[in-house]
Amino acid sequence: MDTEPAAKVVKTEEEWRAQLTPAEYEVLRRAGTERPFTGEYVDTKTEGIYTCRACGAELFRSDAKFDSHCGWPSFFTPLAGDAVIERPDYSLGMKRTEVICAACHSHLGHVFEGEGYPTPTDLRYCINSISLRLVPKEG
Question: Which residues are catalytic?
Answer without folding.
Answer: 126
